[in-house]
Each structure stands twice: as structure tokens, then as C-alpha cells.
Design brief:
By secondary structure, this protein is of the alpha/beta class. The protein folds into 2 domains: about 180 residues, Glycogen Phosphorylase B (Rossmann fold, 3-Layer(aba) Sandwich); about 180 residues, Rossmann fold (3-Layer(aba) Sandwich). Strands 3-2-1-4-5-6-7 form a 7-stranded parallel beta sheet, with helices on both faces. A 6-stranded parallel beta sheet has the order 10-9-8-11-12-13, with helices on both faces. Helix 1 runs parallel beside helix 2 and helix 7 packs across helix 12. GO terms for molecular function: glycosyltransferase activity. This is Glycosyltransferase. It comes from Sphaerisporangium aureirubrum. Its EC number is 2.4.-.-.
Length: about 400
């Protein structure tokens, strides 16, 4: 894996488009191995290349894995990680203006808030503006987090009217207050590569050996960046309750993010580091999902989690809090168990229920019957049609 390579003034990406070529720029705040970023990379890896050129711009990238995959697919990547973070948004605006795309799709609210009004005021042709909304946001615990998220949501809602189209990744996201009155609102469930996940499921034994999971262990996996919305603190508390009843359980927590060391310290303090392993970022983490007996999420809020679709595609039942678009994928008692958000005891009870041998067999059977519903095929073509319809349509004032 090569390190992330920032774009520099000495080697700017070409902004020239061939005659008749459509140039699409996709902006994401980070290129970490998270759900939003993986969805984007998976889609662009399958996007039509006949007459369309794609550029991805990110404010920072903590790993080169996704950058390598994008570049291997022929996508230009502009990584703005170099330089001071305080000037990041100024460099983002300059980069997008320099690229001069026909269509701009922004996948994170903070960059969208900055780019929408400034591109509207551009002295030359502005791009058609699309926002893809991946989450139905809910207030986080803590006054500071709640105030900041409320401000971001307010600014996002006020500037969203400048978009030409808004794409929600689930019907629940489309109904959320920040999105439901957006102009040109569309809903598209992205999906994942079901065939690839089933191949990874066939290699589950090798993956478990790689991570030192005993053959007789019941493996519970959480793949989620260590951020407040994912609520790893509650997950660790629930895992401790499960381990008191099921000492054969092993938890693997994979992901990056600012709270990783705090969660690792919490696990060590509880004396559970041998049963709850904080792995950090894992290359191609979907293989870890496919090797699990259960996928577990304790999030405060979600959109339509990629990791849940990856689990279902691999035949792995899901235990999750009932948030966001998760209930659109997980039917309690059929392919997983849903619990009320914010309750460690409820999450622990859900895991213990799903771990019962008869229940677990029934859930696995239910998962396999519904996996095609989360297939990625068609999403890249859907976005290509949207971009071309926009570029060929009269621009509103």
C-alpha cells in the first residue's frame, strides 16, 4: 500500500476536458476506511469511463488504501492533507474552482456548506451541484457536541436550497428534517458487491486464523470509525455483559478515528483486552465482516450503513441499535436483532439472544434469502444518468 500523496502546486491535476467529455468532481471530507468513503470508491470503481472523467477531492486521507483503489480505477485524486488544517477549506474551494467540473457531488455537510454559496458566486460557469446525504443526524450526548452538530445542520439546511439535486441513501434519510424539503430530492440505496462478499465468506476460516481467533470462539465484529456517533463506549459496556455470560465470545473492533485510543484504554482498564480487541484500521475490512458470526453496531445515528450491507451480503446476521436506515435492512428476528439506542443492557441482551444456537441458525438462514436486495449493481449507472441529465438540462437561476 502506498502512502497518501497530496496534490501539490508542482503537479496539479489537468482541468482540460476532451470535446464532449463530462467531468464529474466528487468531494468527501476524508478518505478514511469508513462507510461513506467505501461507498464512493466502490461506485467509482464501477462507473462508466466512456466519455466521463472523475476526480475525487478530499480534505485529508489517513491511509493510502482508498486512494490506491481510486487511482487504479482511473480516477484522479486530489488530497489536500498537506498544509495547515485551518486553511483546508480555502484550499478546497480553490481546488474545485481550478478543476472546473461540469457536475460537483459533495458527500459531507461541512464541505457542502462552504462550497455551495462560493460556487454560486463564481465569475465563470459554475458546476451543477449535487449533495449525497449519507446520514440522518441525531443530537449527540454532551453540550459542546450537540451545539456544534446543531449549527452544522442549520447551515446545511439553509444552503441546501442552492443544490440542483439531493440524493438520500435511504428512505429514512430522505424523510429526515434536514433533507425532506430539499430541491430535486431523490433516493438511491447504493448496495455492495454481493458476489465479492460471498467470496470473502468462503475464506472465513483463513481470516479468523489471521486475526488469531480460536476455532471454537463466537466472533462478534464491529467495523466503524471511532467517533462519537458510533458509541463504542456503550458497545464495550455491552460486550462486557455478554462476556460475563458467554466467555467463548471474542470481539474485534476495527476502524480509525480520534476515539480509538480512549476505547482501547477503557478495554484495558476493564481487563478485557484478550477478549475485546481494538484493531485500528484493517485493510479490506469487509473480509473481517464476512468472517464474523455476528456484526454488531451500537450507533447513536446512521444513514444506511455499508458494513450492515456487507454483513448481509456475506450471510452474517446483524445486531444493531434501531437507528437510521438500519431497520430498512434488518428485520428483527429474521436476519438480525434490533435494540433501542443508548442502552448497553438492551444491546447485550440482543447479542446474547442472537448467539443462542437455534436462533443463530435461523438468522443466518434469513440473511441468505435477502442478500440480493443489497447488491451494488446498477448504482454507478444510475449516478452516470443523473449527471448526464443535469449537464444536458437548462440551469436554474
Amino acid at each position: 500500500m502506498s502512502p497518501a500523496t497530496p496534490a501539490s502546486a508542482e503537479s496539479p491535476p489537468s482541468t482540460a476536458s476532451a470535446p464532449g467529455e463530462l467531468h464529474v468532481c466528487e468531494v468527501v471530507k476524508t478518505l478514511n476506511v469508513g462507510g461513506v468513503e467505501v461507498l464512493l470508491v466502490e461506485r467509482l470503481s464501477r462507473a462508466p469511463r466512456d466519455g466521463t472523467r472523475y476526480t475525487v477531492v478530499c480534505l485529508r486521507a489517513s491511509t493510502g488504501e482508498l486512494i490506491d483503489r481510486l487511482r487504479a480505477a482511473g480516477v484522479t485524486v486530489v488530497d489536500l492533507s498537506a498544509g495547515t488544517r485551518a486553511l483546508g477549506y480555502a484550499r478546497l474551494v480553490a481546488a474545485v474552482r481550478g478543476l472546473a467540473p461540469h457536475v460537483l457531488n459533495v458527500h459531507s455537510p461541512a464541505p457542502a456548506i462552504v462550497l455551495r454559496p462560493l460556487l454560486r458566486l463564481a465569475p465563470r460557469r459554475r458546476p451543477y451541484l449535487v449533495s449525497t446525504v449519507h446520514y440522518a443526524y441525531s443530537p449527540l450526548p454532551g453540550l459542546a457536541d450537540r451545539m456544534l452538530s446543531s449549527l452544522v445542520l442549520l447551515m446545511d439546511r439553509l444552503t441546501r436550497r442552492l443544490d440542483d439535486r439531493t440524493v438520500a441513501v435511504s428512505s429514512q434519510v430522505a424523510r429526515s428534517p434536514a433533507v425532506r424539503h430539499a430541491p430535486g430530492l431523490l433516493t438511491r440505496v447504493h448496495g455492495v458487491d454481493v458476489a465479492e462478499q460471498r467470496r470473502w465468506a468462503g475464506r472465513a476460516a483463513a481470516t479468523r486464523r489471521e486475526f488469531g481467533v480460536p476455532d471454537d470462539a463466537f466472533l462478534l465484529v464491529c467495523v466503524a470509525n471511532f467517533r462519537p456517533q458510533k458509541n463504542h463506549m456503550m458497545l464495550v459496556q455491552a460486550a462486557a455483559e455478554v462476556l460475563a455470560e458467554r466467555p467463548d465470545a471474542v470481539f474485534l473492533l476495527a476502524g480509525g478515528g480520534p476515539l480509538r485510543e480512549r476505547i482501547a484504554h477503557l478495554v484495558r482498564r476493564r481487563g478485557l483486552a484478550d477478549r475485546i480487541r481494538v484493531l485500528g484500521p484493517v485493510s479490506d475490512a469487509r473480509r473481517l465482516v464476512a468472517a464474523a458470526d455476528l456484526l454488531v453496531l451500537g450507533s447513536h445515528y446512521e444513514g444506511l450503513p455499508v458494513v450492515v450491507m456487507e454483513a448481509l451480503a456475506a450471510g452474517v446476521p446483524v445486531v444493531s441499535t434501531r437507528v437510521g436506515g438500519v431497520p430498512e435492512l434488518v428485520v428483527c428476528g429474521r436476519n438480525g436483532v434490533l435494540t433501542e439506542p443508548g442502552s448497553a443492557s438492551a444491546l447485550a441482551a440482543g447479542m446474547l439472544r442472537a448467539m443462542e444456537p437455534e436462533t443463530h441458525r435461523a438468522l443466518r438462514s434469513g440473511v441468505l434469502t435477502g442478500a440480493p436486495a443489497v447488491d451494488l449493481r446498477g448504482t454507478a449507472e444510475w449516478f452516470e444518468r443523473l449527471y448526464r441529465e443535469l449537464a444536458g438540462a437548462p440551469r436554474h437561476a
